[in-house]
Amino acid sequence: MIRVEVRTARGDVLESTSADPDFDPVQLVVDRDAYPILGHLDPYGDTFLNRMQAKPLKAEIARVRMEDTRLVR
Q1: pTM surpassing 0.85?
Q2: Comparison of pLDDT for 43 and 69, the residue scoring more
Q3: Core vs surface per residue 22-61: b (16+ CB within 10 A) or e
Q4: Of 5, 20, 51, 60, which has fewest CB within 10 angstroms of its CB?
């Protein structure tokens, strides 16, 4: 399962969300041109993003939700 957490520099969790267990960007072949951040998340390990990447990722997740509600809750 993919879990996204927004943390402070000290590691405190500010916000979090998780993908549906069926969401697998490798098997679903997430379009990396359409979703440049979401398409590059490591489904098998940790991916660390800076604060400038967090806002576009949030927008990409919102777009995925509108396009296919089974992918991200």
Answers
A1: no
A2: 43
A3: ebebeeeebeeeebebbeebeeeeeeeeeeeeeeebeebb
A4: 51
